Fold:
Amino acid sequence: MAALVDDLGEDLLQITCANGCIVDVGWYPAWNEEGRLRVVAVHGQDWEAPVFSALPDKDPQALLQALRAALASVA
Structure:
């Protein structure tokens, strides 16, 4: 597991939409195996007030559902 923890940074995936909105996936706290995934969506680089935020369970379907909801919130 220690080798995998090195990959659990805050910046795992960032999608910049055509309208300039951003959907971001990260691991918080970074490099901590007890951490959690976080999915956020922001308008206009306003990271202090995301339009969507979720902490999906550690399974692929929950992450996919959160990503879909985040993308829908900035569409």
